[in-house]
Amino acid sequence: MNRKTKVARLSILSNSILIFLKLIVGIFSGSVSIISEAIHSTMDLAASIIAFFSVRLSSRPADKNHPYGHGKFENISGVIEALLIFAASMWIIIESVNKITHPGGEVKSFAVGFIVMFISAGVNFIVSKKLYKIAKEEDSVALEADALHLRTDVYTALGVGFGLLLIWITHLNFLDPVVAIIVALFILKEAFELLKNAFSPLLDARLSDDEIMIIEDTIDNYKSVYCNFHNLRTRKSGSTKYIDLHLVVPENMSVKNAHNICDNIEVDLENKLRNTEVMIHLESCNNQCGNYEICEKTNRPI
């Protein structure tokens, strides 16, 4: 089992335990904010399960039917996770508004609820930190989405915990659904960011500006032996980055030298941007680029 799968499994285990604790305490105390946190953790569990299977599927090698691999399984899982968060947030808001308009009993067991919320925050902080570390090292959008879920759960659990403390001090029970709505709005913001990040690669959006700059600077390192380059295109599938471009070389340059230039550029790009596949299309300059100095350097060893 690879690192991505192991850490995804850890997220499933931690979320399962926290959901059980939050549901028991939420039902016993009558706190809608604690129950909203249980619903949030349930969505986190669903997201963790989706992430677990998506990283396993995305790790499959390319095959006859999927020559570019299975990386977009991770992006699809990110979109599904975002939609689940949207649904959970709307449910929390509806239930909270209903409790404000139709107030029920008082919130009970502040101490237990407070303790459970801070235990939840601590566990999720540790797990999300580990998830985020592996996500960055493996460039996994599914694990990054899962880490983002849990990191948000840290903030929302702390918010609910302090909300319970405030209710205990002030005896203003209407603060409980108000805190739940604030939690839901925070989760909605998280869902929007996640949806945007996960959906873009499905439309073959280009890489980030920083990554484009790295690509262009790397190619520029070889400008003394080629004429120019154009038609630079980039996209991403899961953790794999795809780069293709047209490289213009002097008309009389040997195939061997032109091939060596391409090999050197590809190796440099793959070293600077992990999980990268590069495709370079060679074109002949035919002395029409205006870079006559380069065109005169034909057949020099590379």
From TrEMBL:
<dbReference type="GO" id="GO:0005886">
    <property type="term" value="C:plasma membrane"/>
</dbReference>
<feature type="transmembrane region" description="Helical">
    <location>
        <begin position="76"/>
        <end position="94"/>
    </location>
</feature>
<dbReference type="GO" id="GO:0015341">
    <property type="term" value="F:zinc efflux antiporter activity"/>
</dbReference>
<keyword id="KW-1133">Transmembrane helix</keyword>
<dbReference type="Pfam" id="PF16916">
    <property type="entry name" value="ZT_dimer"/>
</dbReference>
<dbReference type="InterPro" id="IPR036837">
    <property type="entry name" value="Cation_efflux_CTD_sf"/>
</dbReference>
<feature type="transmembrane region" description="Helical">
    <location>
        <begin position="12"/>
        <end position="32"/>
    </location>
</feature>
<comment type="similarity">
    <text>Belongs to the cation diffusion facilitator (CDF) transporter (TC 2.A.4) family.</text>
</comment>
<dbReference type="InterPro" id="IPR050291">
    <property type="entry name" value="CDF_Transporter"/>
</dbReference>
<keyword id="KW-0812">Transmembrane</keyword>
<keyword id="KW-0813">Transport</keyword>
<dbReference type="InterPro" id="IPR027469">
    <property type="entry name" value="Cation_efflux_TMD_sf"/>
</dbReference>
<feature type="domain" description="Cation efflux protein transmembrane">
    <location>
        <begin position="10"/>
        <end position="203"/>
    </location>
</feature>
<dbReference type="InterPro" id="IPR058533">
    <property type="entry name" value="Cation_efflux_TM"/>
</dbReference>
<dbReference type="GO" id="GO:0006882">
    <property type="term" value="P:intracellular zinc ion homeostasis"/>
</dbReference>
<dbReference type="Pfam" id="PF01545">
    <property type="entry name" value="Cation_efflux"/>
</dbReference>
<feature type="transmembrane region" description="Helical">
    <location>
        <begin position="38"/>
        <end position="55"/>
    </location>
</feature>
<feature type="transmembrane region" description="Helical">
    <location>
        <begin position="174"/>
        <end position="192"/>
    </location>
</feature>
<feature type="transmembrane region" description="Helical">
    <location>
        <begin position="109"/>
        <end position="127"/>
    </location>
</feature>
<dbReference type="InterPro" id="IPR002524">
    <property type="entry name" value="Cation_efflux"/>
</dbReference>
<dbReference type="GO" id="GO:0015086">
    <property type="term" value="F:cadmium ion transmembrane transporter activity"/>
</dbReference>
<dbReference type="InterPro" id="IPR027470">
    <property type="entry name" value="Cation_efflux_CTD"/>
</dbReference>
<protein>
    <submittedName>
        <fullName>Cation transporter</fullName>
    </submittedName>
</protein>
<dbReference type="GO" id="GO:0015093">
    <property type="term" value="F:ferrous iron transmembrane transporter activity"/>
</dbReference>
<feature type="domain" description="Cation efflux protein cytoplasmic">
    <location>
        <begin position="207"/>
        <end position="285"/>
    </location>
</feature>
<keyword id="KW-0472">Membrane</keyword>
